[in-house]
Every structure is written in structure tokens, then in C-alpha cells.
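Quick start: what a row looks like.
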Amino acid sequence: MRYSAWQVLRQGLTGNRGWAPVWRNPDPKPEYDIIIIGGGGHGLSTAYYLARKHGLKNIAVLEKGYIGGGNVGRNTTIVRANYFLEGNSQFYSHSLKLWEGLERELNFNVMHSQRGLINLFHSDGQRDAFARRGNAMINQGDDAILLDREGVRRHLPYLDFEQIRFPVYGGLYHPRGGTARHDAVAWGYARGADSRGVDLIQNCEVTGIDVKGGVVQGVQTTRGAIRARKVGIVVAGRSGQVAAMAGMRLPVESHVLQAFVTEGLKPCIDHVVSFGMGHFYISQSDKGGLVFGGDLDFYASYAQRGNLPMKEHVMEAAMTLMPMIGKAKVLRSWGGIMDMTPDGSPIIDKTHIEGLYLDCGWCYGGFKAVPASGDCFAHLIATDRPHEAASAFRLDRFRTGAGLMDEEGTGAQHNLH
């Protein structure tokens, strides 16, 4: 069914009894050409682009829970292309361009809102660094505007400009940055993939990967064995565990990243705002809740919950930046599992096992990368060649040391990314 204003009117006048299911719920077949392990945003977008761009049909996405139940349905929804280093910059620029046409392509409202993103800076050195980043973004073909203190005040009058410890010197404004509705992105890609013949198999946990003579044969699941010529692993914080089923040890650690949302408030924050003296970022959802987050919890864990010290740390940053937030009641918080690489940049590559492919290590950047990750991973699986936009995301850079992309300049240490 194609969605349109006419369809909404028609269904409303007929009691909404004619809506078709958004996707099927099929049983797994004994064999597929391609299996994608992981039904999050990256896995669903991969399956969608395999079908739409490469004309492949015999594809299954295996999800151990339900579609949209992982990190793609629980994140701070930020979309941006303000990366600096060669490799990352091209990739996220590609992703933002895909975001800008996504609703039209999927015929689904993912609520992409280009409300603009402002990264604050608080010293002369930070200003110079952001000026350099902004120039690199412009040279890449993206947008960046360097704001002085008064320029920031015009956009963000509610900040504390009088604080002595972290005075606001200015900000780097990325007008095309913004937010999108996290679970709607999963639903849109799921609907698009299903309509092109992809089987979305929910409640189907992969328990083993079959490899014979260095060639992948298929997977073992809680719903039986499924054969496949090609298998893609795209499971976010579980990347290390799933790769271990094929005898691989990945250069990743899994860490908890907490996020928070307040009660619904009247519109007060028009942009996405990032605090330059603490890893804090905030925006306001369409329902009125203030959505914000900060640093990792800094210990390896598979638990989808956080701890109180990090909650306190994030709240301190919020109060430092905008004291008005102290009047808001926190409605809920949650923790997602991030697969962190030593250089803070992702991996999209073939493995040493023929027919086994890897898409992981998204650190903080997973949601904004969903369209480009799926596009590039689908290209790799379909053609056995890296997509131009993801050619730097090689797995062997951690073995050779060549081509590392330390975007934050924090060194090769997982928990600092």
C-alpha cells in the first residue's frame, strides 16, 4: 500500500479498516542467497538496498527480538555530517544526502527535521579547531557557519553566557544537521525491504555460524539451521559475540551509553546543541521531551542499563550549559550497547572467511550512519568491492596501523571513543 494524503483521508472515512500490514511475518526458509544478522537500522537498510539497488530478492534479515527493538529504537536521534578526517567526512556526507531524500524514497515519514546543529566552543584553541573543521566541511560540499558569541546568543539565548569556568566563545553551526524519529527509520526500511521480497524473521536468534573449508555455509538459529552463500554481521554491541561464532576476535569493546528524556515541555530548544567542554548534547523531540546524553559509562558491559555516577555527570553538564533544565523532570533513561573501536571509526569490510561480511564499530555514530551504512554494506556484499564512500573502513587497519581514523584525537583506546 502506498501512503498518501488521499489514503489517510480514505481510511479515516471508512473506519481505518483497510490498512495493510506494514510487513509480513514469514517463517524462515531452509536456504537464502544472503542472510543479514541483525534487524536494526543498519541491517534493515542493508537488506533494502540489496533489493532496491542490486535487484537481489532471496534475502533474510534475522532478528533475535523484534524489529526496531534495539539501539535504533533507543537513541538520541541526531543526524549530522560534521566530521573532519578523510574517510569519515566523505562517508557521513554521503549519509546526510541519503537522509535528505529518504522519506520520498521510502514513502514513509521518518520525521527528518533539519533544525540545525551547533557545536559550542569555549577557548581560542577550540575556536581554531572548529574553524578548521568547518572549512573541511565546506570543502567537502557540506555546510558550516562559524558563529561568534553574539551569533550563538541569537540562536540559543537560553544558555548561561555568564559562567566563568566554561565561557561560550562561539559555535560551529551546521544548518543541515538535525534529528529524525528513530523507530520510524527502522519501520520505513523494514517496510521497504519487505515490499521487495526480503524476509524479516523476528524472534530468531543466531546461535552459530557454519564455516567449512574457509567458506561460510549458513547459520544456526533458535528456529533451525538456515543455509546461505553470503552472511552479513551487523549487530552493533553484539558484534564481538557473533563474530566469535565464526572463530573471529574483533578489535572492539562493548560499552554502555546512556540517554535521557524529560517530560513534555512547550517548544524551547530549536536546534541540536553540543557542549564543547563536556560530552553533552541535547535537542527537543516533536512530543516536547528534552532528549540528551553524554559520555559512555567507561566500563565494558553488555547490560542495557547505566549507573548513577554517569547520570550525575550528564546532569551536571546540562546544568552548567543551561540552568533552566533543572526545572524539568526526567521521565526515563535507558542504556544502549555501543561497539567501540580503538580509533572511534567503523568497520565495513569482508572477513578472511569467504562469504562472511562485517559491519560494526559504530561507536557514537550509528544512527546518523544508517542510510550510508546500509548502502555501502549492500554494495560490498553484492559486488565484493568496497563502496567509494566506505573505502577507508578496512578491518586490517587495526593490524597494520595504517589508515587509522581517530576523529576525536583521544588515542587508540576503546573507552575514550
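That is the whole record. The mean pLDDT is 95. The chain is about 30% helix and 25% strand.
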